[in-house]
Amino acid sequence: MSNKFVNVSAALLLFTMAMTGILSMKGDSATMDELAHIPAGYSYLTQFDYRINPEHPPLAKDFAALPLLFLDLKFPIESSAWTEDVNGQWQLGTQFIYESGNDADQIIFWARIPMILLLLLLGFLIFKFAKELFNKESALLALAFFSFSPSFIAHGRLVTTDIAATLGTVLATYFWLKFLKNRTKKTIILAGAALGIALLLKFSLILLIPFFAVITLAYVFLEKKPFWKYVFSSVLAGLVALFLVITPVYMVHTANYPAERQLSDTKEILQSSPMESFKNLCIWAADKPLVRAPGHYLLGLLMATQRTASGNTGYFLGQVSGTGWWYYFPVVYFLKVPLAFHILSLLALIFLLISFIKKAPKPNPLEWMRSHFTEFSMVVFLAIYWFVSVNGKLNLGVRHVLPTFPFIYILVSSLLVSFVAKSKESIRKFLIVFVSGLIAWYVASSVTCFPYYLSYFNEIGGGYEGGYEYVVDSNYDWGQDLKRLKNFAEKNDIEKIWLDYFGGGNPEYYLGEKYVEMKPQYAYASGWVAVSINQLQGGSGDPAPGYDQPTGYYKWLSEQTPVGRAGTSIFIYYLE
Asked: Helix, strand, or coil here: 198?
């Protein structure tokens, strides 16, 4: 394939992804986290005050809020959610988007457009990374996997931090490897700047620090490089990240955040934190002029760490738990990723095994790591990130392991392309047809779920119509179908409808006087009833071992047959 053909094909893939994202999000209402992230970003850019949503770094939210600066919006600056509440993000979000006279759909649409731009930038980086490491064919295949990934399309349209985290992972890893292989002042600065940007995109990317430490030590050992020079250079890169990127950004964002308010908010937020030393350091720094900016970053990091350790209440495989399941992410990955890709991944592993068996003498592991250091680094990242995810208690969706996907795409693509190219002529044509068929299946499974990408499950998982039987939350129901419920109510001339809704939309805004708040204990409700499947499954599942909260309160409704659905996630009943 010529470079021109590859580059044009890559551009078409990214254009297709962008259009798919824009067209599929038009019918979606706000998802749960967008209710907090959108007003938070807008407050940062207009108030220079970081009292809202400190548990997530600012960059992705800032980027989403940029188009909103050109709209004539009213911000509830006098609301008690802003003036009195500690991190009153949910109430403030409801007031800003739905109750201040603003056009909610306009706000949501324009805030999502920058997210799609981040998604395209991520695709470009995957393509560039794979092309430099392997070849243009591998790069194009990796980009194809990315461009038709239901999970990336689903979350790339939303104002959340998951795609941003994936972008930060690829960006920081790319420049850190450049620094290791060519240690200069320029590469040190670029590596530090990229690391700083990544750490401003999501707190989970703090895992990049041990990852970079491991691969730096491995590189020094394998290449017999001067140990202390690389340690010193790595520390310099870290200082660039902290003092030239993170601290200035947080200084701007806390410029109008009163020091006494930051101190009182910090004390309130961290009162139950078990990390006593870091807690005290964070409180001490909260009102000190020179360190309150990095202190606020530390606050967010502690909040994110504490939430991961404490877990969340969720439904999974028929059970409800508040502490999670160690096998949650492996199962969700298996069910949410297209089946064709699993087969291609298995094929790539078989090809790798065959190549090792055929080599004589047997390859030396250290020599392989040295000659394939970038691939080795990707495997190290996958091991660290998946280990932490499996051992964490925060089971909220496949989106939390999206940062591992690009490296999986690149590794699988390179193995497939390499083995097909090196295979004998007699079987090469068969392999090309077979692999091409699987790729076509992969693309088809993505295209046919339009526009319900958030609810995508592969064929084993029941597809986008049946995946809720296994797991919900952001894997299936994040509140995206409220506008579709409005359309259903209007089409069927419904005057009143009971609703138990989960998400970032506002039932009163979309349904008006038709809306009647539904509570699980209202087993006597009659007429039209609608329930988000996240609520229904959470109230129908059995308690997991050790879970002592009420369950089963929606079993009475789960035994009824729904007369329809709004999109995929809101089940609609008519009860006599």
From this structure: helix
Among residues 336, 488, 485, 325, the alpha carbon closest in space to that of 401 is found at: 336
d(CA 20, CA 25) in angstroms, rounded, equals 8
Residues of the chain with pLDDT under 50: none
In degrees, rounded to 5, the angle at the alpha carbon of residue 92 between the alpha carbons of residues 89 and 98 is 130
d(CA 171, CA 129): 9
Share of the chain above pLDDT 90, in %: 86
pLDDT, residue 522, reads 58
CA dist 368 and 384 (Å) reads 20
Report pTM. Answer: 0.95
Q: For residue 480, what are its two tokens?
A: 């995206």
Predicted local confidence at residue 526, as pLDDT: 84
How many residues does the structure list for the chain? 576
d(CA 225, CA 468): 52
Query: HSE on the CB side for 423, CA within 13 Å?
Result: 17
Q: Are strands 497-500 and 515-517 parallel, antiparallel or unpaired?
A: parallel
Lay out the sheet containing 319-321: strands in order across. Answer: 314-316, 319-321, 542-543
Neighbours of 28 (CB within 10 A): 28
The CA-atom distances, in angstroms, between 459 and each of 316, 398, 404, 444 are 18, 17, 22, 12
Q: Which of 459, 452, 497 is nearest to 477 (CA)?
A: 452
- End-to-end Cα separation, the chain, in angstroms: 64
d(CA 161, CA 149): 17
SS3 content of the chain, % helix, strand, coil (to 5): 65, 5, 30
Buried b / exposed e across 352-384, counting CB within 10 Å, b at 16+?
Answer: eeeeeeeeeeeeeeeeebbeebbbbbbebbbeb
Specify which residues 497 forms β-bridges with: 515, 528
Question: Ramachandran region of residue 63, left (φ > 0), alpha (ψ -120 to 50) or beta?
Answer: alpha
